[in-house]
TrEMBL record:
One of its GO terms (cellular component) is plasma membrane. One of its GO terms (molecular function) is ABC-type xenobiotic transporter activity. It is found in: Cell membrane. This is ABC-type xenobiotic transporter. The lineage of its organism: Bacteria, Bacillati, Actinomycetota, Actinomycetes, Kitasatosporales. It is a peripheral membrane protein. Residues 316-342 are annotated as: Disordered. NCBIfam families: drrA. Coiled coil: none annotated. It comes from Streptomyces filamentosus. Signal peptide: none annotated. InterPro entries: AAA+_ATPase, ABC_transporter-like_ATP-bd, ABC_transporter-like_CS, ABC_transporter_ATP-binding, DrrA, P-loop_NTPase.
Length: 342
């Protein structure tokens, strides 16, 4: 097996005049989880479909385990499996019926199909629900049976397109455990997600895409380091002191305070520009400044910047003079762009 499970050069996919994938270069190392992160309409699903040979590219090239996705589509299909953004199992069949049917279609004999299905239903915590129709499954159970269906034959490369969108935290954790188990078996996973914490939990490398282009790529550490050397988190005793605390922190750290829905929580990214002080020394000065200003601080921590901060910094297309609250929504909810509804 080669060094890269996926290699693309200048990959393009257009829909009419819309360049959904607009020149993507990717290198996905074999045996890892590679995260593709991007807001709605960024081109994630389109890119995955091209790589999985479900859509034909309009430009550039892509190879999966060295096979060209156009010229050698069959060879690619033999190595990959896709769990789509929208469930692909049959609603009216039970969990067992779905998996056995798919296993039979994949060429397993009846006993082997039954055995593999039972094994996966057990492993995915669906044994008790195995004889219920899938339409009566919860969202989390649906996702799990979907992933189970896509690994009936252990693929060399598994595409997981937003596997946890809409799931509660417990179900998300279950899916994450499944992804880890799949990778431990040697499968390479390309995971698309809008959730930064998901990429943080699972992916070794991440490509951030927006408007069909890769706008940043690297390990989590590299991406975080690109926005700053540290992130100061403060919890105040009293929400009324927040405006004062924001002013003191902004002045002490020479950086904008990020908006937080929690009225007593403040986060500031320390970027290290214009100072020789380390992030920890800058944080210590900020704490001292808060104390001098008579602000009661219940909790103070210095951590790495979050991937959230990276994402907002990268997908922020608005000038820096916009107020922070406006800039925050620009990354999360890109209503500033026109998209045809799919
Ligand atoms: N079959 C299609 N026909 C026309 N336009 C399409 C088609 N599929 C996707 N698009 C457009 O291509 C762009 C990228 O869509 P895509 O589904 O790849 O985004 P995404 O990153 O997966 O978004 P989401 O997070 O919402 O799933 C969007 O502007 C979308 O409207
Ligand atoms: Mg999508």
């Amino acid at each position: 097996m080669g060094e890269f499970a996926i290699e693309t050069e200048g990959l393009v996919k257009t829909f009419g005049g819309n360049r959904a994938v607009d020149g993507i270069d990717l290198r996905v190392p074999t045996g890892t989880v590679y995260g593709v992160l991007g807001p709605n309409g960024a081109g994630k699903t389109t890119a995955v479909k091209v790589l999985a040979t479900l859509l034909r590219p309009d430009g550039g090239r892509a190879r999966v385990f060295g096979h060209d996705v156009v010229a050698e589509a069959d060879a690619v299909r033999g190595r990959v499996s896709l769990t789509g953004q929208y469930a692909s199992v049959d609603e009216d069949l039970t969990g067992t019926e779905n998996l056995v049917l798919l296993a039979r279609l994949l060429g397993h004999g009846r006993p082997a199909a039954r055995e593999r299905s039972a094994q996966l239903l057990e492993a995915f915590g669906l044994a008790d629900a195995s004889d219920r129709q899938v339409k009566n499954y919860s969202g989390g159970m649906r996702r799990r049976i979907d992933i189970a269906a896509s690994i009936l034959n252990t693929p060399d490369l598994l595409f997981l397109d937003e596997p946890t969108t809409g799931l509660d935290p417990r179900s998300r954790n279950q899916v994450w455990d499944i992804v880890r188990a799949v990778v431990a078996q040697g499968t390479t996973v390309l995971l698309t997600t809008q959730y930064l914490d998901e990429a943080d939990q699972l992916a070794s490398r991440i490509a951030v895409i927006d408007h069909g282009r890769v706008i940043a790529e690297g390990t989590k550490g590299e991406l975080k380091a690109s926005v700053g050397s540290g992130s100061v988190h403060v919890r105040l005793r009293d929400a009324e002191q927040r405006p004062a605390a924001e002013r003191v922190l902004a002045a002490a750290l020479d950086a904008a305070v990020q908006p937080d829905p929690d009225p007593v929580a403040l986060t500031v990214t320390v970027d290290g520009h214009g100072t020789d002080l380390g992030a920890a020394e800058q944080a210590a000065r900020a704490l001292a400044a808060l104390t001098r200003a008579g602000i009661t601080v219940d909790n103070f921590a210095l951590g790495q910047p979050s991937l959230d901060a990276v994402f907002l910094a990268l997908t922020d297309r608005t000038p820096a003079d916009r107020p922070p609250a406006d800039r925050a929504t620009a990354g999360r909810d890109p209503t500033d762009r026109k998209e045809p509804t799919a």
